[in-house]
């Protein structure tokens, strides 16, 4: 048999095809580079979704993370395996180191179903880790000489705390010997409360009748006060009312309340009379006091010591005077905003004042 060999024609054809393929590839690469240099924003501007959150219109909707949480995560491993449990509730305390024993007792009343945040108004944070093991697992935010409403406005935006069903906004001077957080949540859900607080021990002092703990009931929503204060339908402080020392908000209610908090009015006085605006009517059915889980308000004026002596007034007196001033300012702002809104609609403003009158 003879020896097989390639034909000259076949070899030339293969070389020509290879050269054509190489030339095509080089041309496509060069064209792509040129196109990229000439029109760097071509691919970005192709994406435009007006329904996206403001500022994110150029992103594909599937990549947008418009809400967040306060869950603590690891610095290593698979992110999908970071969280063994996702707490459903959030509790915050505005604290000073002098009240650490009180806060220790409070924190121990909340299970691992709660994310706990401590807002430190005295700047002391590291000492807590040295004294309490649980302190290493909570979130510490330290800004000196601020109030819980200042912290809330800046760190608890509704989109940041959107994973939590209920948000507790508590002071540091609360006795919790007769309080169980999980049972409290059970009562709030059972009675459909969007805004609530634990009942207060009537023997330890109360500002308002409605917040006093009652016997033989789970929840109450109305009370008798001075006759001229109680209207029909019932309104604050006779109904649809909780105090600002230990309020608990549903996710939906908090989204409204956050928007109502004023940036410059840090003490929150007057908010309690306006909270009813943040639930559907009838508000007096969705705001109430939980009697089965009650607390003691200890009236420790610790935040007053963070004030400054001016014009012969003690630090505490200066703080108290501003509280009253802010109450009047807040009432005026709400009333004026409402009147302006109805004026723009060319309708008469209803009587919906946030005051006692």
Automatic annotation (TrEMBL):
<protein>
    <recommendedName>
        <fullName>Storage protein</fullName>
    </recommendedName>
</protein>
<keyword id="KW-1133">Transmembrane helix</keyword>
<keyword id="KW-0472">Membrane</keyword>
<feature type="transmembrane region" description="Helical">
    <location>
        <begin position="21"/>
        <end position="44"/>
    </location>
</feature>
<dbReference type="InterPro" id="IPR007877">
    <property type="entry name" value="DUF707"/>
</dbReference>
<keyword id="KW-0812">Transmembrane</keyword>
<dbReference type="Pfam" id="PF05212">
    <property type="entry name" value="DUF707"/>
</dbReference>
């Amino acid at each position: 048999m003879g020896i097989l060999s390639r034909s000259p024609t076949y070899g030339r054809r293969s070389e020509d095809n290879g050269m054509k393929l190489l030339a095509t590839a080089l041309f496509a690469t060069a064209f792509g580079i040129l196109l990229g240099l000439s029109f760097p924003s071509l691919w970005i501007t192709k994406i435009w979704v007006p329904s996206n959150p403001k500022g994110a219109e150029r992103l594909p909707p599937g990549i947008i993370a418009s809400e967040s949480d306060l869950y603590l995560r690891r610095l290593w491993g698979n992110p999908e395996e970071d969280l063994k449990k996702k707490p459903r509730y959030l509790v915050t305390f505005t604290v000073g180191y002098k009240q650490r024993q009180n806060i220790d007792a409070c924190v121990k009343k909340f299970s691992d179903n709660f994310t706990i945040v401590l807002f430190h108004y005295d700047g002391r944070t590291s000492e807590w880790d040295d004294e309490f093991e649980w302190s290493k697992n909570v979130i510490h935010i330290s800004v000196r000489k601020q109030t819980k409403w200042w912290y809330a406005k800046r760190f608890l935006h509704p989109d940041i705390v959107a994973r939590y069903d209920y948000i507790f906004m508590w002071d540091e001077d609360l006795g919790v010997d007769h309080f169980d957080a999980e049972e409290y949540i059970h009562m709030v859900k059972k009675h459909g409360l969007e805004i609530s607080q634990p009942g207060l021990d009537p023997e330890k002092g109360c500002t308002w009748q409605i917040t006093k703990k009652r016997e033989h009931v789970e929840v109450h929503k109305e009370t008798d006060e001075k006759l001229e204060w109680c209207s029909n339908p019932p309104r604050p402080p006779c109904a649809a009312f909780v105090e600002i020392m230990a309020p608990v908000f549903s996710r939906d209610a908090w989204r409204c309340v956050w928007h109502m908090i004023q940036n410059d009015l840090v003490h929150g006085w007057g908010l309690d009379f306006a909270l009813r605006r943040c639930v559907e009517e009838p508000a007096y059915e969705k705001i109430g006091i939980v009697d089965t889980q009650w607390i003691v308000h200890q009236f420790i004026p610790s935040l007053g010591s963070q004030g400054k002596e001016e014009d012969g007034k003690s630090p505490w007196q200066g703080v108290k005077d501003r509280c009253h001033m802010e109450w009047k300012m807040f009432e005026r702002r709400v009333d004026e905003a409402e009147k302006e809104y109805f004026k723009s609609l060319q309708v008469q403003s209803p009587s919906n004042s946030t005051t006692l009158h």
